[in-house]
Amino acid sequence: MKDRLIVALDVDTFEQACSIVDELGDEVLTYKIGLAPFIGYGFKIIDYIKSKNKRFFLDLKFFDIPNTVELAVYQACMLGASMLSLHTIGTKLMIEAAIAGKKRFEDQTGKAGPILLGITILTSMDEDSLESGMFIKKPLGETILGLAKNAYDAGLRGFVASPNEAKLLKDSFDDVVVVTPGIRMGDSKDDQKRSNTPRFAIENKADYIVVGRPIIKAQNPKQAVIECIKNMKGEM
Ligand SMILES: O=c1ccn([C@@H]2O[C@H](COP(=O)(O)O)[C@@H](O)[C@H]2O)c(=O)[nH]1
């Protein structure tokens, strides 16, 4: 299960991020570097994570014109990420460009590029936010499936969704990797609207779970990781 846990390093400083990586030691194999850590101290933390032989998911959620996304994906591949995210609402041409950026990297270097993960609908949104903020008046599952199908047809084989939609995506598309943030074990959901437990995510076919605050803000982050892994195994 350790292989399937990704810890989001959403902290303010390089020193805080290093101290989490040191504290969690062998318990965590993969970290997620999102917008804030990347803007604040991105290259330093990437080097640090690599020096500890850990993998990293670069979660910059690309969403731009196709040419810009092709260039960005190529550069992100060069950094050595094992996973990269982009928004499926970027539509087919943008997704094809992302895949082309990865292919350019692979052709040039002979190395395998990262898994490209399409964000379906952010886990901080629900049907109400989609209707009031994006004027989408459809059942959430339908919107997620529609975006995923478009991305799948463009060649994408990975998705980010909440644990609640992991099974729907795994059952609807062959050979896809599904990564689920929005993981919570206690009562507090923070800003997450679609959340569930590690156990639920795994039982519902998520390949990987992403956990940020429940681990990095815990009084004892290492204990939180141990409990999370036990929960993934159905042991608590
Ligand atoms: O739909 C999405 C996509 C990405 N995320 C990211 O995952 C972590 C979750 O952190 P928590 O503290 O466990 O809520 C965070 O970095 C988000 O940017 C997401 O939550 N939902």
Automatic annotation (TrEMBL):
PROSITE patterns, A to Z: OMPDECASE (PS00156)
Domain Orotidine 5'-phosphate decarboxylase: 4-228
Keyword Nucleotidyltransferase annotated: no
The keyword Isomerase belongs to this UniProt entry's keyword annotation: no
Pathway annotation: Pyrimidine metabolism; UMP biosynthesis via de novo pathway; UMP from orotate: step 2/2
Active site: D59, K61, D64
GO MF annotation list: orotidine-5'-phosphate decarboxylase activity
UniProt binding sites for substrate: D10, K32, T123, R184, Q192, G212, R213
Tree of life domain: Bacteria
An annotated GO cellular component: cytosol
GO annotation (BP), single: 'de novo' pyrimidine nucleobase biosynthetic process
Catalyses which reaction(s): orotidine 5'-phosphate + H(+) = UMP + CO2
EC number: 4.1.1.23
Any Pfam family the entry gives: OMPdecase
Keyword entries, A-Z: Decarboxylase, Lyase, Pyrimidine biosynthesis
Family per similarity comment: Belongs to the OMP decarboxylase family.
Function: Catalyzes the decarboxylation of orotidine 5'-monophosphate (OMP) to uridine 5'-monophosphate (UMP).
NCBIfam families reported for this sequence: PRK00230.1 (NF001273), pyrF (TIGR01740)
Protein name per the record: Orotidine 5'-phosphate decarboxylase
Classification lineage: Bacteria, Pseudomonadati, Campylobacterota, Desulfurellia, Desulfurellales
